[in-house]
C-alpha cells in the first residue's frame, strides 16, 4: 500500500525536498543564520507529517472502496473533481454495458422465437412426407417439393444466424445475373412444376457482387413469387444492365402491408391467411441487398400480381 501511495504522490514530496535544499543553499550563500532555516524546516515538518498520515489513510480507504465496490453508489463519497470524473466515466460505461446486455438478451430472445417458428414450419413438410409414407402414396415430385421447402427453411435460419452474429464475409466478383437466376430457377423447378407455373427470363446484367449472397436474396424473392402465384400462372424475369425485375401474376399484396414488407418478423395479411410466411425471408433479403449496395422496391396489386425490382443504388457506381 505504501509503495502505491509513493508512486501516486511521491512527486510532491520530491518537489518539497528540492525546495528545502534550495532554501538551504540560499541561506548558506547569503550567510543567513541557519537557526531560522532549522525553525522553518521544523515547522513545515510538524505540519507535513500529520497531513501526510491523514492523506495516506484517506488514500488507503479510497483504494479499498475501489477494490470492493459493486455499485456506483458505494463510491459516491469520493467527491474530488477527479473522482467525480471517474464516476461519470464508469457510469457511462455501465450504461453502455447494460445496453449491450439488453441487446444481446433481445437478440437471444428473437433467435429463440425464430427457431420455434421454423421448427413449427418444418413440421408441415415433414408431416406431409409422413402422411405420404403411411398411405403408400410416395410420389417423387411431391417428396422433392417438401424437401425443397425444408432446405429453404433451413437456409433462411442459417442465414439469419450468420447475419445476426456477423460471422460471414462477402467476396465480390464479376458475374452474369442471367446465369445466376437460371440456377435458382433450376433449383426450384419442382415447385414450378407442382403449380404448373411458366417462367420467362430475358436480358442479362453483368454485376460485380457476391454470388452466394445475391443468389440467396433472389431465391427469397423467387420463392415468394412461386408461393403466392396462382396455379398455371407465369413469372417474368427481366434483366437490364442495371436491374432485375421479377413479376408474378399472383394474389398480390395489400397496400397497407407494402411499407412493412421488410420489417423483421412481419408477415402481413397473405402470410397469416396462407400460413406460409415466417416474416424473415424479405427481412433477410433487404439486409443482404443492403450489404451488396443494391436497392429493392416492391409494387403490387391485389389479384393482379407483384413486381419486385432489384437495382443499383442511385448514389453508387459499380
From TrEMBL:
<keyword id="KW-1133">Transmembrane helix</keyword>
<feature type="transmembrane region" description="Helical">
    <location>
        <begin position="36"/>
        <end position="57"/>
    </location>
</feature>
<dbReference type="GO" id="GO:0016301">
    <property type="term" value="F:kinase activity"/>
</dbReference>
<dbReference type="Pfam" id="PF02518">
    <property type="entry name" value="HATPase_c"/>
</dbReference>
<feature type="domain" description="Histidine kinase">
    <location>
        <begin position="117"/>
        <end position="316"/>
    </location>
</feature>
<feature type="transmembrane region" description="Helical">
    <location>
        <begin position="12"/>
        <end position="30"/>
    </location>
</feature>
<keyword id="KW-0812">Transmembrane</keyword>
<protein>
    <recommendedName>
        <fullName>histidine kinase</fullName>
        <ecNumber>2.7.13.3</ecNumber>
    </recommendedName>
</protein>
<keyword id="KW-0808">Transferase</keyword>
<keyword id="KW-0902">Two-component regulatory system</keyword>
<keyword id="KW-0472">Membrane</keyword>
<keyword id="KW-0418">Kinase</keyword>
<dbReference type="InterPro" id="IPR005467">
    <property type="entry name" value="His_kinase_dom"/>
</dbReference>
<dbReference type="InterPro" id="IPR036890">
    <property type="entry name" value="HATPase_C_sf"/>
</dbReference>
<dbReference type="InterPro" id="IPR003594">
    <property type="entry name" value="HATPase_dom"/>
</dbReference>
<keyword id="KW-1003">Cell membrane</keyword>
<dbReference type="InterPro" id="IPR050351">
    <property type="entry name" value="BphY/WalK/GraS-like"/>
</dbReference>
